[in-house]
Specification:
This protein is mainly α. 82% of the residues lie in helices and 2% in strands. The chain is built from 12 helices and 4 strands; from the N terminus they run αααβαβαααααβαβαα.
Length: 344
């Protein structure tokens, strides 16, 4: 509802559908993470705020791309390979660097928010520049057929959609945070693990719905852009705003800094060879992503229950990771060799 209203308002003031997709829809799919993390940060549950973002970014790649690629092989656009994927890697590294002192403070949050503003402004500028070039080309061929579509819904109704949607989002976020906190206390599970799993998957539902449905309907390039864009928004906007609004900032648990954040970065790095080999994510690669998400979640569950099986499972998981790294490096080397042979 909020995204529909905001899109209608944007269209009413002359913003193109392409720009709306890059800004309003991208924000809309990350809005649950933003609402939940800010509510948690302000309410004194910073571990949920941090776990929500880190867990959502891991779930976006492993779970969402995994399911979407199993439904249909996904296409990776040149724009994502050249700019958005490197940016996702860069902001993931930036988050770890800013967390090394043990806290994401107001200054750190301000830097992240400035980053998302810069990214959004650049995206709007680039899309409008490309759109004007396309309009000029179309006008030369069909001079009378380049009118911009107008929103069919009155502006005041779109405004109502935005206000009601925001209200429902804030209320829902409060329920999620309260429920997660109660669950953690009842079962003696850390709020960080709850944020990394239950809350993260819950707030990633919009991305799951959009990506899987788009993949099933043949729009095979939407899922990857949705996931990469959401991961960038999560770090820069969600954690940025949460760090600014949280009293004293967001403390970074040692376990998150030593394990969960590196996992988030490794998951982003795993996209590099997969995205660059054949310009698509095959079904078996989606299955690999999904298997690793199940393995990661099981690892967190074993930690939460204090299982004696954890050391053996950790050894097995590390062995699987090493084999996967060797496989991905081999894929990348083979793709580079094939590219050189074609250009020779």
């Amino acid at each position: 509802m909020m995204v529909r209203g905001a899109s209608g308002l944007a269209m009413a003031v002359g913003i193109s559908p392409l720009v709306v997709g890059l800004t309003v829809v991208a924000f809309g799919t990350s809005a649950p993470e933003l609402a939940v993390s800010v509510q948690a940060a302000v309410g004194g549950q910073p571990d949920i705020a941090l776990g929500n973002v880190v867990g959502s970014n891991i779930a976006n790649v492993l779970l969402i791309l995994g399911i979407s690629a199993l439904a249909a092989p996904l296409l990776v656009s040149p724009q994502i390979r050249r700019f958005d994927l490197p940016l996702m890697l860069a902001v993931s590294v930036l988050l770890i660097v800013l967390s090394l002192d043990g806290t994401l403070g107001t200054i750190d949050g301000t830097m992240l928010v400035i980053g998302i503003i810069t990214y959004t402004v650049w995206s709007v500028y680039k899309s409008r520049r490309d759109e004007k070039a396309a309009e000029a080309e179309n006008a030369a061929v069909q001079p009378d057929d380049h009118q911009k579509p107008a929103s069919s819904t009155p502006w005041y109704l779109n405004l109502v959609f935005v206000v009601v949607g925001l209200g429902m989002l804030v209320l829902g976020a409060r329920w999620i945070v309260d429920g997660a906190t109660s669950f953690a206390r009842a079962f003696d599970v850390s709020e960080l693990i709850i944020g990394l799993t239950i809350v993260a998957v819950g707030t990633s539902l919009p991305e799951i719905a959009i990506s899987v449905l788009a993949s099933m309907r043949g729009h095979r390039d939407i899922a990857v852009g949705n996931v990469v864009g959401s991961n960038i928004f999560n770090i820069l906007s969600v954690l940025g705003v949460a760090a600014i609004t949280a009293p004293g900032g967001i403390p970074i648990p040692a376990s998150a800094l030593s394990f969960d954040m590196p996992v988030m970065l490794l998951v982003a790095l795993a996209c590099v060879p997969i995205f660059f080999t054949g310009s698509e994510i095959a079904r078996w690669e989606g299955g690999l992503f999904l298997a690793y998400y199940v393995a990661y979640t099981l690892y967190l569950v074993l930690i939460a229950v204090g299982s004696s099986f954890l050391p053996l499972y950790t050894t097995i998981l590390l062995g699987a990771v090493v084999l996967t790294v060797l496989l991905l490096v081999g894929m990348m080397a083979r793709a580079m060799l094939s590219s050189r042979q074609r250009t020779a």
